[in-house]
Every structure is written in structure tokens, then in C-alpha cells.
Amino acid sequence: MTLAFKSRFHYLFRASWLAALSFYIMHLNEKGSLHYYLVPHLQKLLLLCPVPLLFIAFGMAWHAITGGAEQVCDCEHSLPAGFLRNTGIYGLLVIPLIFAFLMPDLALGSDMAAKKGMNYAFSEADIHRKPPDKTASLQSPNLNELFVAKDSYNAEFAELAKRLYLLPTIEVDSSIFSETIGAIQMYKQPFLNKKITLQGFVFREKGMQADLFSVSRFLMMCCPADATPFGVMVQANNASSFPNDAWVEIQGTVQETTMNGKETLQIKASRIQKINPPASPYIYTNPDSVAEFEELHPDNAAKVGNKQ
Amino acid sequence: MKVSNVYKILPLLFPVIFLIPALVVSFHSQTRLLSNPQLQQIKTLFIGIFLEAFPFLLLGVLLSSLLQILIKDEWIRRLNPKNPVLGVLMGSTLGLILPICECGMIPVVRRLMLKGMPAYIAVTFILSGPILNPIVFAATLVAFRSHPEITLARMGLAMAVSVSIGLIVYAFYPKNPLKQPLQHDHSPSEPAGSHHHDHHHHSTQTWTSFFVHAGNELIDMSKYLVLGAFVTACIQSLIPHQELLALGSGPITSYLFMMGLAFMLSLCSTSDAFVASAFMHSFSAGPLLSFLVLGPMLDFKSLLMMLGAFRFKFVIWLCLLLVVLVFIGSAAADFLIHPISMERN
């Protein structure tokens, strides 16, 4: 007994859906667009999928062409019956493919940031409860006294802060973006008036003053669903000439301001430059920001050792 | 061949799928459909959630198909502990050796149940698996750097809730909660014609049927994933969080709000701690915990998957129990944690 014509159609559709999905994943990878949807470690996991998917698709197609009825494993997956049900299920399955192939890959922007609510606190700055001895003056910086880790969980921020403090200009690198701003935010005082350079997209809250905007990035843990917008306030006289979502590079100095009754960082911009969106618009958390920093600034590491 | 009840629900949900983009578009009728920023956001979120969950789903399906071939029913039967308390404890720690996240969970658990794992252990595993595993523990610890008690409370509460639900299922639900019958009944009086195919299945199992089986299960689960991911993406990109936040300001409504948020956002359990930490300034430990514990156990896409595998009534009771237990548990934890964190500061 051979497979009914209807079942053949079902299996062929299923096989082609799986194959299409597998090709879509490979297509995204080839274009280098996977980073719009997944963090690097999940990208690797996703890239394991196309081959088994093609095997399954091939198995199903083979079954559709040659299969006999007695071979069908119908113990649980009865094929859907009825026109409405079929359209429902297969229409549903086709939706991601329609979205995938008809619309461009774009990163989340300021519209989404407004929906999710911008965050201005990169670290819990409750260091204030145990203020470090401010008299351990800034003139003779003893790094270990200046940057005291509140507890073992914040040791990484303290270590990073020590290293950042020694830089003439803090260039905020994308690979340790949130950690760098977090460390500056946690200790604030020693960093005031220090030069800083960073990149991000322009975002404005409703009712923000004309000379202000926030330079922002989305921090992604797994996928865009959990991407959280983080921003640093920027004050510049020509701020209004940069529209929302424009990618900019800010050069300026670290300042302090209050926003909604909370102290937060603000950068007084000396120069704002429009840039192209970076290859990877999202930022990620770094498992070891200090090691990453030392890789980025190999000559700076030695200095920290000397001054400790 | 009995048509599963799943398919009866789907056409009802189907119009929703078209309704949502249609509504979105009608608000912005001036702009072209494909360059609509809101639709673009939906696409980014939708494809993101789908691609994030898909590898885990595939893994779960392949694992389930392998279990089907390799594991004999007697092995599972022999492993089943006689004591129900021991059973639920085993179920709740199974996540340590089988750290699958919620997307891959349903196919594996369904297979294990068909192989003879009792329902109460399986339910305990479904609920605790996505939380009580080393990956989630580490992720939560990082997200709440300076509040390790939140991580401990999350693990503890997840265990308490899943164990109590396991025991409740043991005591009050002796039936088979799966939609499909347990065909692996080894009673000799079984009529030869109806159910015997599974037994000779093992001998005629070929690689083609392995793939056909895996593919069918994958499609079966994918439709719930697609629906869940799509609705989640729409909710996330159409409703501003801040306005929602205003709803959850009262002492009890804050719990309900955070639980509702966890249900709607459908985040992966490895990343939700991070999202919760953004609410740290708005809420105390209790509502945060309710978010962290309920989310992985019950969210939009896992609810759809559960409805696909389990009986409707069973799932509804499970959801109600979960909400009540998580609420009580996190409120109690809030009471306990509060003095501790005050001391620390």
C-alpha cells in the first residue's frame, strides 16, 4: 500500500519548509546578518542547525516520494485534515519565511528604546553608601584606595576603573561598552572632567531640553526580545542638528548631572561627528572586561602593576 | 486515526495573526507596508525570538527521537522511585543533568512520559528544569551582582513551587495528562491489531523513519513557537513598558504586573534575570522574584506548546496553581529577604 496523495503533499510541504529554513539560516550567515538577531554564542548554536535540518527535510521528501503507508509513524502525529486547518497551520508556518525574505534586516532603534524605556544606570552606583576616602587625594592617586570594590561582586568594576583612570582619553570600546560606562558611573568623582570618546545612536526622551540627547546602545543577552537600551546623556550646543537614530561619535568630557532626582553621568561634547552604523550595532556583556581591556591597551597594563 | 484537539483550536487563533499586522498597518496607512518602522521592529523581534529558540527546539526533538529508539521502557520504569517525595525531588533536580531550556522541554518530556515516566515527576521536571540548572544560576548571579540572595531565592522558590505542584499532581491527578494515549501498556490482554505497531516499530526502525518522526515533531512544535514568537513580538513592539509600569504600583498589583509581564515577554530563562534587574529600582525583591520564577515556568510560547501536548483542563489547572503558588511564595520571600538586604546596606 502506498502513501495517499494527500499525505505526500503534506510531507513535501514540510520537507520544503524545513529546507527553506535551513537555507535562510545559511543565507543570513553568508550576508553576515546573524548579529541582528542573536548574540555570538547563540549564533554558533544556530549554525549547527542547517545540516540536521537538511537531513530531516531529505528524509521527509524521500518518504513523500517512496514511502509506503505501513512505514508511517502515526503513533502521535496525525496529519491535519480539513482545508481550514491546513491553511491555518501551514499559513502560520509560512509567516516567518515571509517576514524573513521580504523585509530588510535592521537593528532596533530609538523607537524601540522609547517603548522599552531607556536605562541610564549601567551599574548599581550604591557605592555612595560606603564612600571611599575622598581625602585619598586625586593628586597622588593610589589606585587601590581610590577604587575600592564594595564587595567581591564588584571587584571587576574596581579593577577596570583603575585601568581606565590611567588613560589620557577613555575610548569606550564596543566590546566592553557597558562595563566601561558602569565602572565610570560607579566611582564618578575621580573621572570628572576626564576626556572620553564613545559611539552610539541618538535618542531623545519626550520633553528633553534642546541641547541634550542620549548616546545609546542596545545591550543584548540572547536575542532582540531581551535587548535593553542603555544611554549616556550628552550635552552639546549643536545637539538639535542630530536627528534620532543617527549614529554619532562623541568626544567630550565626563560631567555629572541629576536626572529625575538621580545623579547620573553626562558628557559635555566638544565634538560630535556623524558616523556610519557600526558592523555590530548591539553591545554584549563581556565575561572578563579586565582581560579584554588589557588586550585592547597592552601598554597600559604594566602601569597599573607599577602604581599598585 | 484520531485528529488531535490541537488542530481544533488553531483556526480560532489564526485570525489573530492577520488581525495584528492589519491593525498596525492601518495606524500608519500613509507609509508603505514594507518600510513601516513598527512592522520592521516586529520582524526583528519575531525572527530574533524564533531563531533563538529554534536550535533548542531542534535539540529537544532530536533528543526525543533518539530516546524513542535507544531507551527501553523498562529502564525508565526501573528508575522510577516508589516514594512520591523522592520522585518529585528527582524530577526537580533532573535539570542539573538535562539542562534543556523551556523550548526543547516539551518534546523530551512527552517522550519520557510515553516511555513510562509518571506524570507528577514529568510536571516537576517541566517546571523546574528551565530554572534549576547551572547556566541559569550563573546568569542570575551576574545580573544581580550585589544581591546574591535574589539568585538563591529564585532557585529555592522554583524548587518549592515545582515540588509542591508535583505532589499536588501526584495526589489529585492520577490520570494521563497527555492528549495522546499511553500506548506502551504492556498488558498481555492488549488486542493485537490496534496497539501493537509500536513494538515491531523498533525492529523496522530505519533512518528515514527517524527523520520523518523528528520532522513531524519539529513541525508540530514549530507552529506553537511561531505563534508564540509572533504575538510576543507584537506585544513588545506595540506596548510601551513605562506606561505598563504605572499599572503595577500597588503592593499586590506589582506582583500581578510582574507575573503578567513575564508571561507576555516570553524571555529565555538565561536572559530574563538581566531584564528583571532593570526593574530593581521600581520594585522590591518579591515582585522581581515572581517575574523570575513564573516566566520560565509559564509564558506565552510555552503555554502554547503545553496546550499542544497536554489536555486543556490539565494545563488550565496547572497555570492557575502556578500563579497562586508563585504569588504566595514570592510574597513570603519578600518578607524574608527584606530585612537581610537592609542589613547588608
Describe this structure in words.
The complex is a heterodimer of chains A (308) and B (345). Chain A contains 10 helices and 6 strands, in the order H-H-H-H-H-H-H-E-H-E-E-E-E-E-H-H. With 308 residues, chain A is an alpha/beta fold. Chain A folds into 2 domains: 5-102; 110-307, OB fold (Dihydrolipoamide Acetyltransferase, E2P) (Beta Barrel). A 5-stranded mixed beta barrel of chain A has the order 2-3-4-6-5. In chain A, strand 5 (247-259) and strand 6 (262-274) form a beta hairpin. In chain A, helix 1 (5-31) packs antiparallel against helix 3, helix 1 packs parallel to helix 4 and helix 7 (155-165) packs across helix 8 (177-187). Chain A is elongated. With 345 residues, chain B is mostly helical. The longest helix of chain B is centred in the N-terminal third of the chain and has 34 residues, at 37-70. Helix content of chain B is 76%, strand content 0%. Chains A and B meet through helix 1, helix 2, helix 3, helix 4 and helix 5 of A and helix 1, helix 2, helix 10, helix 11 and helix 12 of B.
Chart the SSEs and their pairings.
The complex is a heterodimer of chains A (308) and B (345).
Chain A: H1 5-31, H2 40-46, H3 50-66, H4 83-102, H5 110-116, H6 143-146, H7 155-165, E1 169-171, H8 177-187, E2 195-203, E3 212-219, E4 228-235, E5 247-259, E6 262-274, H9 289-296, H10 298-307
Parallel strand pairs in A: 1-2, 4-6
Antiparallel strand pairs in A: 2-3, 2-5, 3-4, 5-6
Chain B: H1 6-27, H2 37-70, H3 73-79, H4 84-97, H5 102-114, H6 119-128, H7 134-143, H8 148-172, H9 192-195, H10 197-204, H11 207-238, H12 241-247, H13 253-265, H14 272-277, H15 285-297, H16 300-309, H17 312-344
Helix pairs in contact in B: 1-11, 2-5, 2-11, 4-6, 4-8, 5-6, 5-16, 6-8, 8-15, 8-17, 11-16, 13-15, 15-17
